[in-house]
Amino acid sequence: MSNNLLKGKKGIIFGALNDQSIAWKVAEKCFEEGAQLVLSNAPIALRMGEINKLSEACANAPVIGADVTNMDDLKNLFDKAIEHFGGKIDFILHSVGMSMNMRKNNSYTSLNYDFTHKTLDISAMSFHRILQLAYQMDAINEWGSVLALTYIAAQRVFPDYNEMADAKALLESITRSFGYQYGIKRKVRINTVSQSPTRTTAGSGVKGFDGFMNYAEKMSPLGNASAEDCANYCVTLFSDYTRMVTMQNLFHDGGFSFSGVTGPVIEQMEK
Predict the structure, then answer these.
(1) Residue 67: helix, strand or coil by DSSP?
(2) Pseudo-torsion of CA 230, 235, 241, 243, nearest 10°?
(3) Which of 151, 177, 211, 222 could hold 254 in an S-S bridge, CB 3.0 to 4.6 Å?
(4) How confident is the model over 141-165, as a mean pLDDT?
């Protein structure tokens, strides 16, 4: 059921690959709540994924390819989005991350640094590029909202998350620093959402993912938050009801982040 929380708002969604993607769910929910959308992903992801199906479901939202490490691509995306919308943007979702070290099974103590540079560039510095370009172009309306998806590995050790943990820590730092600058200039708010482990194409590639999903479920008083739950939360953060929330890392994980231990975990350990 729609509450029209985003009626009249216009946004760019980065990173929807297929219907397992959190970005896909966010796009669907934003559209349901009245938003107009532009969808973007890397050119290779557009070829591999199913984003055209999402476009059709969102009133033929334009799909504009953009390499998030390329400023010319991002400038073209913003220019075309503003032209399509007939004005500035109200919200942006950054749901972008990639680690070749993880794909190649390189451990954290045996990183390929060229791969690591790409991880940081794609997964974190891309967020700075998007924000810097939007800031310089004055592309976001006052009281606009920008979100990036992160993970608690930025604060705690999850060995198999590898150097993506470093990338998420940088992502959260950029959120704070740019949140200050953009808040002063245009009242634009910038936050990260630290989501439960979620069975996406990217998430499922993490070593031991199934076991960790089960562990997180037992460690979370409310259980793991689904991609659909995350989409609902993102909508509230894009809406006018959260205008005074900025520079925050917001845990959306069923209570996992603040649970020391739970009964089900103790019971499992005692078996």
Answers:
(1) coil
(2) 90
(3) 222
(4) 96
Decide if 16 contacts 23 (C-beta within 8 A): yes
pTM value is 0.95
Residues across the chain: 271
Contacts of 185 (CB under 8 A, 6+ apart): 135
Which helix (DSSP H) or strand (DSSP E) does residue 147 occupy?
Answer: strand 140-150
Strand, coil or helix: what is 204? helix
**What fold characterizes domain 10-270?**
Rossmann fold (3.40.50)
**Hey, how many other C-beta atoms are within 10 angstroms of the C-beta on 148?**
28
Cβ atoms 226, 232 nearer than 8 A: no
Residue spans of the domains in the chain: they are 10-270
What are the pLDDT digits (tens) for 45-98?
888 879 999 999 999 999 999 999 999 999 999 999 999 999 999 999 999 999
Residue 224 DSSP label? P
**Cβ of 65: how many Cβ atoms within 10 Å?**
17
Residues paired with 261 in a beta bridge = none
